[in-house]
């Protein structure tokens, strides 16, 4: 028997896609999971057990769509009991809660998962994939990989193998009592570790070639989050700890200690030897492509950390091989949110719609509108004031209004690049939510920096905060752009500031038609 879809991995993305297939009545699928439970990743990571994805059950509104803007952990479902916010009130929850949540999700949605079925090989002959897992062999027309980045990324450091890796290191602070510790890496795992060890260590140095990037400045959730940045305080207030900017060249044993050769970026690559009792590697993860036979091995990009993908989340060189979940951050690497549940849950829904369109003749869900600028503006305004998908997947996902003669169609939550790759209508209005130009280059808390007033319609294109942007495509080319003025309450419905300028813009474009 050849399955339509074989999903590898029963984490949030794999379960999300399976739930969509189940709801649509597609029974010819199976999820393969190497562990004995769904979401096994979260039973181990993050190592110090606090998630950095926010959870806010108390919002003051019963609007389920709006609430998803501040619920970064739920995967999409019609069942209100399957909201992560029902499980805990902690703003930064324990990872153990995620483990229970995913187990409940799998059980209540009745998705078809085979546990203890670790995939050992994936091959492709003709248009059929052959997958070996758990002593069984499966055939499938399409394979969707939802394994996440499961293998430690190892930077080219001589002696790197002497370091304790984040995945295996001790997490009991008492194990580091009075020790000098070097942490390699400047991401959340590095600072999560530093914060956890500050009370017991003698000295902690956090090292890496790049400067520390704060999420509140870049708006990328994977950069250093405030919940993990207590270490910065100890460094700037001269409390024994330090951040080293530069490259670790070598790690060597020197008796009971480690001698680390370090070159400093800010002093013309001057090298210095520093001594530590422990070296911890918190350098991130990458995609594990070892299971793929040469016939099905996907091309890799970004230092071989991710599979290269088309706008449809399909491998660029292996037809029928798709990716879901955090692997899809290759499409928006360090720019938007495909690397996180609150982003890729919408990417997975888009992937499901792409698969439905390609293989089951099911068109993208759409509604029709009157061919007037007022009707189009009303539809856009109504959506941008509620949508969680465009809010979370800023600049990456869009609502699209296509105009073909008098036929006007509204499509929700279309990946921008997928639209550009497949657009057929001669005229389209593509609406996204975006931050302003160079938003990551200034300190958002510096009141001396000039900022566009939220009511200044003519300068909305320079607004720094998240705001709606409507682009006009004619035959797949952008010919005009309209920015709606930013708003403190994220309500873009003021007649004089938002609605009438948008109607006038749409009217001009329809007149050109």
Structural commentary:
- This protein has 513 residues and is α/β, with parallel strands linked by helices.
- It has helices spanning 12-24, 64-67, 95-109, 188-197, 215-218, 230-236, 341-360, 373-384, 389-392, 416-422, 495-512; strands at residues 2-8, 29-32, 113-114, 119-125, 128-133, 136-145, 151-152, 164-165, 180-184, 203-208, 242-254, 257-264, 270-276, 278-281, 285-286, 300-301, 306-307, 321-323, 366-369, 397-404, 407-415, 427-434, 467-474, 477-483.
- Strands 1, 2, 3, 4, 5, 6 and 18 form a seven-stranded mixed beta sheet that branches.
- β4 (119-125) and β5 form a beta hairpin.
- The longest helix is centred in the C-terminal third of the chain and has 20 residues, at 341-360.
- It is globular.
By helix and strand content, what is the structural category? alpha/beta
Biggest β-sheet: count, sense, barrel? 7 strands, mixed
User: What's the total number of strands?
Assistant: 24
**Quaternary structure state of the chains depicted:** single chain
Average of per-residue pLDDT values: 94
Amount of helix? 10-25%
Number of helices: 11
From the N-terminal CA to the C-terminal CA, the straight-line distance is 52 Å
What would the principal axes of the Cα set say about the shape?
globular
Structure at a glance:
The protein is an alpha/beta fold and 513 residues long. The protein contains 11 helices and 24 strands. The strands form 5 sheets. Strands 1, 2, 3, 4, 5, 6 and 18 form a 7-stranded mixed beta sheet that branches. A 7-stranded mixed beta sheet has the order 8-14-9-10-11-12-13.
């Amino acid at each position: 028997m050849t399955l339509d879809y074989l999903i590898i991995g029963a984490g949030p993305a794999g379960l999300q896609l399976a739930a969509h297939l189940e709801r649509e009545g597609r029974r010819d699928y199976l999820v393969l999971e190497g562990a004995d439970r769904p979401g096994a990743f979260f039973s181990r990571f993050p190592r110090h057990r606090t998630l950095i994805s926010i959870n806010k059950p108390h919002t003051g509104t019963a609007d389920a769509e709006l609430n998803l803007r501040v619920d970064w952990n739920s995967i999409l479902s019609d069942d209100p009991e399957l909201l992560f916010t029902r499980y805990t009130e902690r703003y930064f929850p324990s990872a153990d809660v995620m483990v229970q949540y995913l187990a409940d999700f799998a059980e209540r949605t009745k998705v078809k998962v085979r546990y203890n079925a670790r995939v050992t090989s994936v091959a492709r002959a003709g248009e059929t994939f052959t997958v070996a897992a758990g002593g069984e062999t499966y055939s499938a027309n399409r394979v969707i990989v939802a394994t996440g980045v499961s293998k430690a990324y190892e930077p080219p450091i001589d002696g790197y193998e002497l370091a304790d890796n984040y995945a295996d290191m001790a997490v009991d602070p008492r194990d580091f009592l009075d020790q000098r510790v070097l942490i390699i890496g400047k991401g959340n795992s590095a600072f999560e570790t530093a914060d956890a060890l500050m009370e017991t260590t003698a000295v902690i140095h956090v090292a890496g070639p790049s400067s520390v990037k704060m999420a509140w400045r870049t708006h990328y959730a994977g950069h250093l989050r405030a919940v993990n940045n207590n270490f910065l305080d100890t460094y700037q207030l001269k409390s024994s700890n330090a951040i080293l900017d530069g490259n670790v060249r070598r790690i060597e044993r020197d008796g009971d200690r480690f001698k680390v050769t370090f070159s400093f970026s800010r002093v013309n690559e001057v090298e210095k030897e520093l001594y530590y009792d422990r070296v911890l590697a918190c350098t991130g993860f990458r995609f594990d492509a070892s299971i793929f036979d040469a016939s099905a091995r996907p091309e890799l990009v970004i230092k071989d950390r991710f599979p290269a993908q088309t706008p449809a989340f399909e491998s660029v060189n292996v037809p029928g091989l798709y990716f879901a979940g955090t692997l899809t951050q290759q499409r928006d690497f360090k720019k938007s949110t495909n690397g996180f549940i609150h982003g890729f849950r919408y990417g997975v829904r888009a992937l499901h719609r792409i698969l439905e369109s390609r293989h089951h003749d099911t068109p993208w869900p759409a509604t029709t509108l009157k061919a007037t600028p007022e009707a189009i503006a009303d539809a856009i305004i109504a959506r941008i004031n509620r949508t969680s998908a465009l809010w979370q997947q800023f600049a990456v996902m869009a609502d699209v209004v296509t105009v073909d003669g008098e036929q006007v169609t509204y499509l929700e939550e279309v990946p921008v690049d997928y639209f550009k790759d497949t657009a057929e209508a001669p005229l389209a209005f593509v609406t996204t939510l975006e931050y302003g130009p160079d938003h990551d280059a200034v300190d958002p808390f510096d009141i001396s920096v000039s900022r566009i007033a939220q009511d200044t319609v003519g300068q909305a294109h320079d607004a720094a905060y998240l705001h709606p942007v409507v682009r006009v495509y004619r035959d797949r080319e952008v010919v005009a752009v309209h920015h709606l003025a930013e708003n403190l309450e994220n309500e873009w419905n003021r007649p004089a500031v938002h609605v009438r300028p948008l109607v006038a813009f749409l009217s001009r474009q329809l007149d050109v038609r």
